[in-house]
Design a protein that fits this description.
211 residues, alpha/beta, Rossmann fold, two-stranded parallel sheet, 5 helices
């Protein structure tokens, strides 16, 4: 591990984000985390974490978090069926990263079903979250894939659960993932942490499921 590596985190108060933050700190990284409300973040008094209050849909707030970071981890999600933030936030993150003299690697969450990875899951997600919500994920991922200056990995987890982690995950081969096993959110966080140092998947979209 590179000492003193700084990770910019978006979505750090969500279920995957909270697990990632704990793991990253245990692994010796320093963090810069964007939160809408400082009171919603559990580690305000941890000197290894710089907490910035703001909004991922605000370009200036995002730039403040990304600037000077070595890696960006975004585990954001749309807060509700009727509120879509993914494409807006993703545009802000990728633009801020591209403007850095040495762009940070960006590890961005998406979902199985996006980008043609599973027509069956696409139908299910459209029914659950609505057409606008799924389209927002599609647009966000397309923005990442179009980036030429910033190294990136798109992570598409299958069927997130709150079950206890088993410390493993399965990278799903090919472009379809209809029948993968659900994956605990903690194991998704583990995959993101592994990707912080592993550059072998840069430039790719990775479907992951449970074991």
């Amino acid at each position: 591990m590179t000492k003193n590596k700084c990770i910019a985190v978006f979505g750090g108060t969500g279920k995957v984000g909270r697990e990632f933050v704990k793991m990253a700190l245990d692994s010796g990284y320093s963090l810069r985390v964007l939160v809408r409300k400082r009171s919603s973040f559990e580690l305000n008094n941890d000197n290894r974490v710089e907490v910035i209050e703001g909004d991922a849909t605000n370009a200036e707030d995002v730039t403040a978090v990304v600037t000077g970071s070595d890696v960006v981890v975004s585990v954001l999600g749309n807060p509700s069926r009727n509120v879509q933030i993914m494409s807006n936030a993703t545009e802000n993150i990728m633009k801020a990263a591209a403007e850095q003299s040495s762009p940070p690697r960006c590890l961005m969450i998406s979902s199985v079903g996006v980008g043609g990875s599973s027509w069956l899951i696409k139908i299910s997600l459209t029914l659950i979250g609505g057409r606008a919500g799924f389209k927002d994920y599609e647009n966000a991922e397309a923005r990442v894939r179009s980036e030429t200056r910033v190294p990136f990995i798109v992570v598409r987890p299958y069927a997130l659960t709150d079950k206890p982690a088993n410390g493993q995950y399965k990278v799903l081969p090919g472009h379809t993932a209809h029948f993968a096993k659900p994956i605990p959110r903690t194991d998704v966080a583990r995959f993101f942490l592994d990707c912080v140092e592993d550059v072998s998947r840069d430039g790719s979209c990775v479907n992951i499921g449970g074991v």
